[in-house]
Amino acid sequence: MDINSLPAIVTGGSSGLGEATARHLASLGAKVTIFDLNAERGAIVAAEIKGHFEKVDVTNEANVTAALDNAEKKHGAARILINCAGIVVGSKTVGRDNIPHSLESFSQAININLIGTFNVIRLVSARMAGLEELNEDHERGVIINTASIAAMDGQIGQAAYAASKAGIVGLTLPVARDLSRFGIRVCTIAPGIFITPMMSSLTEEVQDALGAAVPFPSRMGKPEEYAQLAQQICENRMLNGEVIRLDGAIRLAPR
Ligand SMILES: NC(=O)c1ccc[n+]([C@@H]2O[C@H](COP(=O)([O-])OP(=O)(O)OC[C@H]3O[C@@H](n4cnc5c(N)ncnc54)[C@H](O)[C@@H]3O)[C@@H](O)[C@H]2O)c1
């Protein structure tokens, strides 16, 4: 699809990969609404890209529905959904002094990363399904989710995070199949290690070491490179039902 002038929603668009994608889509002419919990930063980004911001908790049905109503009034119903909202949780299954993993933090990762992603997918796609077709392929829209290479190569301490991201990998094909009759494509990007606020809390030394572990190019990914792939998925109609690793060929070691 041609991104220019299409309404787009980017969850997690206040920061990192989502922010870069919101900026990139806006530069291509999309009318972008950011859904994020971080209202302060989200409002700044939205103003800079002449977009719109809605304070949203992606796990909350009423929140997402109200924000979709507002976004629709402002820009029209979304044709592009980018799901970037997410959190990182790190804890071993059995920790120091044989303490078991907190069930609360495991549930939180599943709730925000997996259930939050599916919540927005289902509510947005139900609206998209009723829109006019955009082109001769009867396309109505595209949905892009964000997993992680941890879904496949989860490291020590990543049981919760890896499980939440593997859930996103697992739903990609069945949701693409479900929505195929409406002309809505669904793909998932599984990023490797990207420089975002999630990562910038690490020291420069640790960041350099992470970058050096990437076969080629030996550095961390730039959020703009994620945004570039999101653009390609929007534009290339044969990309559907697929999970794409964006990782410079890194395969994560156990730790
Ligand atoms: N940075 C990486 O190296 C990397 C690698 C693999 C996968 N990812 C995934 O990419 C996505 C974006 O990560 P990032 O690095 O840009 O992180 P980030 O922390 O910079 O951005 C995440 C955004 O999600 C928002 N958010 C969190 N919970 C939310 C909720 N319940 N409702 C609405 N918004 C919420 C945060 O406020 C934040 O603005 C995440 O899903 C992350 O797991 C990141």
Outline of the structure:
The protein has 255 residues and is an alpha/beta fold.
Keywords:
single chain, 255 residues, alpha/beta, Rossmann fold, 7-stranded parallel beta sheet, 45% helix, globular, binds nicotinamide-adenine-dinucleotide
Spans where pLDDT lies below 50 across 5 or more residues: none
Topology, number of strands: 7
> What is the residue-averaged pLDDT?
97
Bound molecules: nicotinamide-adenine-dinucleotide
CATH topology: Rossmann fold
- The CATH architecture is 3-Layer(aba) Sandwich
Span between N and C termini?
41 Å
Task: Give the DSSP E fraction (strand runs of 2 or more residues).
Answer: 5-15%
Order of helices and strands: EHEHEHEHEHHEHHHE
- CATH H-level superfamily title: NAD(P)-binding Rossmann-like Domain
Let me know the largest β-sheet. 7 strands, parallel
Round the Cα radius of gyration to an integer and report it.
18 Å
